[in-house]
């Protein structure tokens, strides 16, 4: 999985007054969990742009005064009115410990059902995967090449040796629904065939 870098500085004071001062200075208060103890730090708001405002999934290399922590975004709080970032929680990665993370679904292939007029519905745009940090995928590939009209692609078809998908087996990732136009065309074709048989 791709990693992005964020540069920040550790915070000594973590009370309400100190946190407010951090925000007033245009910085975002953050904390890293998962290590021996939480690490509180601050970084400029613009540093999180490529992490927060993107559909892609990333790991994060957090540089705090020369010391680097590899982590993933765990939780983020936004201001209810301005949508400004209020606080971010990160979870520190360990090379030998599996982690659960949401990654986007990438559709590949061409569905025969869509070519015949069906409509592709992407039921799951993101999926939870469990893997060692080195095996975390940038995305989960969903190949729709075998989807005929009315078919569904279940999560079990997307299995991988590198990671485990944290969803029930009956989870539908994508499906090809019969469009109104295709249904009307099928009905008209059936009527025409019935009429032709009557004439005989």
Verbal overview:
- Keywords: Ribonucleoprotein, Ribosomal protein, RNA-binding, rRNA-binding.
- Belongs to the bacterial ribosomal protein bL25 family. CTC subfamily.
- This is one of the proteins that binds to the 5S RNA in the ribosome where it forms part of the central protuberance.
- InterPro entries: Rbsml_bL25/Gln-tRNA_synth_N, Ribosomal_bL25/Gln-tRNA_synth, Ribosomal_bL25_b-dom, Ribosomal_bL25_C, Ribosomal_bL25_long, Ribosomal_L25_dom, Ribosomal_uL5_bac-type.
- The protein is an alpha+beta fold and 200 residues long.
- The protein has 2 domains: 91 residues, Ribosomal Protein L25, Chain P (Beta Barrel); 91 residues, Ribosomal protein L25, C-terminal domain (RNA Polymerase Alpha Subunit, Chain A, domain 2, Beta Complex).
- It has 4 helices and 13 strands.
- A 6-stranded mixed barrel has the order 1-3-2-6-5-4. Strands 10-7-9-12 form a 4-stranded mixed sheet, with no helix packed on it. A 3-stranded antiparallel sheet has the order 8-13-11, with no helix packed on it.
- The longest helix has 20 residues.
- The radius of gyration is 24 Å and the shape is elongated.
- The chain starts with a strand and ends with a helix.
- The model has no long low-confidence stretch (mean pLDDT 88).
